Amino acid sequence: MSKPTLSYLETYIWSGLVLNGLRKAAAENNFMEILPSIISSSYEPGAKHSFAVLGDKNLPQVISDESGNVQVKGKEKYYLPVSHVVEKQMSLEFLEKVYCVAPCLRLVMDGEESSGKHLYNFFQFEIEWRTSSMEDVFLQGEKILVSLAKTILEDQITPQSETGLRNIRALAKSNYPTITFSEGHRLIGNSPDLRRDFTPEEDEKLTKLFDIPFWIYDYPEGVRDSIYHQNDEGSYDTYDLMLPFGYGELTTGGIRPKTAEEILQQSKRLGKSYSTAYAEWKDRSQIQTAGFGIGLERIIRYMSGCDSILDIVQYHDLGPNRNINKDFFKEKEAI
């Protein structure tokens, strides 16, 4: 596991600077900020949700807080967000282009604790607008990130490491390349017919081949755990924006399903994530959108040049992220 390189003061400064830069870039491109939904009664297709339990005029009763056997009794339960992919689409019934800074809670899978890229609770800079064009998405995403990079480069206050400066300058370049999912596998020596996602090691290997951010698109069936429009060739109009120099995935998104039937069929294939609310909304509104979510802590890690995403956890955050590596945070307090 990497060592901390940022002081808590530097973590706060970098977080504020990147947030301000992203908001500035979104405003330049006519996006309106909306408020994220913190809890929901609806299951997000493909998500592995955690729960919030509400009491009835009193706090919920904690029957057991034993690790691995937590039991809570209350009046109501709601789903905590893994992303805000459905909610931001629904807001476009009234608006043209939206974004929000969305708190998310995700289970950290085996092996991810030491990746330097994964957190339990994190933030997504969620972007969505009315479009059905991947070319439009690639151009819009590039505009936002180039603007962000230029804003940071113009800042004369924040100390920038050699690695961070290299990373920011790469982000500021134009004409991000695009490659298909099959091409990505071919570039790292795999069969282009391979129908599984990249492993963390492959992700790092692939992105070390680039010195500029790039898009991966055209995913085969069975790779994603969310739902997207299936094109005429049978693959899915979903994409990732990858950071160069081995940093890996920054954003995931896609062209949303175009019909209620498409939503229901894919939701059923994903198992217990089946929910009719999203499909009913699509059937009624007939609104077509696309978008993506920028991992906030990931872009801050990349631009600051620090080694581990744990360095972006702020001092006041006393949630489960601190259990990923307690020694890391003890060392960070000494900086």
From TrEMBL:
<dbReference type="GO" id="GO:0005524">
    <property type="term" value="F:ATP binding"/>
</dbReference>
<dbReference type="InterPro" id="IPR006195">
    <property type="entry name" value="aa-tRNA-synth_II"/>
</dbReference>
<dbReference type="InterPro" id="IPR045864">
    <property type="entry name" value="aa-tRNA-synth_II/BPL/LPL"/>
</dbReference>
<feature type="domain" description="Aminoacyl-transfer RNA synthetases class-II family profile">
    <location>
        <begin position="18"/>
        <end position="320"/>
    </location>
</feature>
<keyword id="KW-0067">ATP-binding</keyword>
<keyword id="KW-0436">Ligase</keyword>
<keyword id="KW-0030">Aminoacyl-tRNA synthetase</keyword>
<dbReference type="Pfam" id="PF00152">
    <property type="entry name" value="tRNA-synt_2"/>
</dbReference>
<dbReference type="GO" id="GO:0006421">
    <property type="term" value="P:asparaginyl-tRNA aminoacylation"/>
</dbReference>
<protein>
    <submittedName>
        <fullName>Asparaginase</fullName>
        <ecNumber>6.1.1.22</ecNumber>
    </submittedName>
</protein>
<dbReference type="InterPro" id="IPR004364">
    <property type="entry name" value="Aa-tRNA-synt_II"/>
</dbReference>
<keyword id="KW-0547">Nucleotide-binding</keyword>
<dbReference type="GO" id="GO:0004816">
    <property type="term" value="F:asparagine-tRNA ligase activity"/>
</dbReference>
<keyword id="KW-0648">Protein biosynthesis</keyword>
